Amino acid sequence: MVLPVGNIENLLALARAGDGTAREQLLAECRPFITRVTAGLCRRHLEWGYDDELSIAFMAFNEAIDRYEEDRKVPFLAYARLLIKSRLTDYLRKENRVSAHMAGSLNSELEEMSAFSLESSRAWGEYLDREAAREREEEIREYAAMLAEFGISFSDLVRCAPRHRDARQVLLHVSRRLAGDGALFEQLVRTGKLPIKELSLLTGVHRKTLERGRKYIIAMALLWHHCQEYLYLCHYLKASGKGE
Amino acid sequence: MEKVLTGIVVEVKARSCIILTPDAQFREIPLPAGGARPGEEVSFSFRRRPVYWQSLLVAASLLLILGAGLFYRGWLNQAVAFVSLDINPSVEMALDRRELVCQARGLNAAGKDLLSRVPVLGLPVEKAIDSLLDRAVQSRYLQPARNNVILTTIAAGNGREPAPQAREIYQVIVRSLSSAGVPAEVVVETAAPEMRRQASKLGLSTGRYLIHVEGKKKGLNIGLEELKKEKISSLEQKKGVTIKEVLGKHGYSGWVPAPKAVENNRSLPGAVKDTAGSRVQERVPPPQGKASRVDHRSGAAVQEPAPPAERVTPGKDRELPGGGEEGAAGRQDCARQVEVKVENINAGSEIEFNQPAGRDRKNYDNGPGHAGAGVFGAHFGRRVFAGRSIQAGYCQAGGRVVECN
């Protein structure tokens, strides 16, 4: 399921401006995200209403709406995730379950950081930058690994990504349609091949064009489809407004 | 046109990295200084690289042009021919490809002295010879009352480059001497590069060495020491030969009489001769081989031991087939020569002689004392010498010679 990231940004802006219903809507829409992030950190299945961790995460997310700094160049969801992580760490430490659950997943610096108040903005800022950089790097590594499954390397993309803006727009449009079309995307993942005939019918782009931009379309479709995992990359492409 | 490319680094290679730009382009750019980590946002300015290449290119082409220029200059200024001049001062000049004097050296004390007075470097060879002769007259190396001999040799530097034409050099000398009014025996010889090398090894001028070599062939014993010390004119007297006779092979030689002498020989000095009286036409068969190269002494022969003016056909002309003499109005083969002796010519006189129709319109001379042939259009030609007294000289038109005394 593709999360409508653009929608989230709209809601976020409204919520930050003080629109109560927008905030409600944003929180509701992001519940699956919160669940996934929290479950990932706790490494177990969590259920709303039973697990405190989810409540802590939910509150942290709510806090993130207010505290989000756009000029940090960190996407909102990534920011929220970092805040959730930090709050959960605090909570788990209190619950004396840090060592059991968090060993290895959090570094000592974070623990030290948590000892102090994260409100101290400079330290928080540094932490945020460092964590964001680390996450971004991780994300790219994952993305590269996923591309490798389809036999695509970044060097291939340098070669076959169209230089001309209009040509690129066409292929980006195709890749969005592919990412949004569940059946076609599923076919891509299953066969590892681009369903060129169907895409050509769907978008009206000539199959030769699709054939030439095959790797680029696949790479971009994967990115759009997994936008929630590749928060930084998606956000970066969207930031310019040209990725649309 | 600076284009900045910004993007997130997605892959780092040894010297470059691949970035993902906000407009979804994947680009490979050189690794920024200090390296980059994946996920980092980097900017790359496209300008630096082209500028670097451009300046390199410009520098390289400048160097190339400079190098080519220097090379060309060196090539131009390379000595390709040598002209040696033996008056009594012996001088040798090296000529570059433009026939400009690029080196000059005196081969004896007088030669050095002469060169120190006449700046010849950088002058065209004709001009250099002209000024050297002028100076030689002024310095009294050449005197009207003496038996002057001017021996000139032209040697190619390595035989591959064209040396100046002996005929041109001869004309220059004749013209120069005529205007200076100094009588002299003029010999212009061409020499092989090897001759010149031998000569300079012995410290002789090429001309003098040539005398030695040719003299030996003819059974004359002319020692090298003699050649080094003696004037050529005194050598001539001593051995009783003329240089022309010794060398006379494939060069040009002739006698330039003093204008006064011509004047003195006239029965009525200062009188203007009847134009018709001075019109003489004569044809003689062309010289065939050495035997036929006889002196055609003019009636107005001047000083003793004044050798007669004679033109020895240059080597390449000799190769051309000669033919029998044709009638007076007959067409002449280019290779043949006809000498026309003209007597009693004075300022304003006219000479005329047969000229084959439609050939060799080119003017061969324009200096004083040369009967000209450039204006003949039809069967008969004529030339008016306006306001000049005629000295010995010749003109060559269609391979014939006009001799005026």
TrEMBL record, chain A:
Protein name: RNA polymerase sigma factor SigI
GO cellular component: cytoplasm
Domain of life, per lineage: Bacteria
Compartment(s) where it occurs, according to its Swiss-Prot or TrEMBL record: Cytoplasm
Coiled-coil residues: none
Keyword flag Membrane: no
One Pfam family, short name: Sigma70_r2
Regulation: Negatively regulated by the anti-sigma-I factor RsgI.
Gene Ontology MF terms: DNA binding; sigma factor activity
Matches recorded under Gene3D superfamilies: 1.10.1740.10
Domain RNA polymerase sigma-70 region: 29-97
NCBIfam families in alphabetical order: PRK08311.2-3
One BP annotation, GO: DNA-templated transcription initiation
Function noted in UniProt: Sigma factors are initiation factors that promote the attachment of RNA polymerase to specific initiation sites and are then released.
Subunit structure and binding partners: Interacts with RsgI.
DNA-binding region: 196-215
InterPro entries: RNA_pol_sigma-I, RNA_pol_sigma70_r2, RNA_pol_sigma_r2
Family: Belongs to the sigma-70 factor family. SigI subfamily.
Keyword entries, A-Z: Cytoplasm, DNA-binding, Sigma factor, Stress response, Transcription, Transcription regulation
Claim: Nucleotidyltransferase is one of the keywords in the record: no
Polymerase core binding, short sequence motif: residues: 52-65
UniProtKB/TrEMBL annotation, chain B:
Pfam families registered for this protein in UniProt: RsgI_M (PF23750), RsgI_N (PF12791)
PROSITE patterns: RSGI_N (PS51849)
Superkingdom of the source species: Bacteria
Keyword terms of this UniProt record: Cell membrane, Membrane, Transmembrane, Transmembrane helix
GO cellular component: plasma membrane
Main location group: membrane
Region (Disordered): 258-334
Compartments reported by the entry: Cell membrane
Membrane topology: Single-pass membrane protein
Transmembrane segments: 51-72
RsgI N-terminal anti-sigma domain span: 5-53
Protein's name according to its UniProt entry: Anti-sigma factor N-terminus
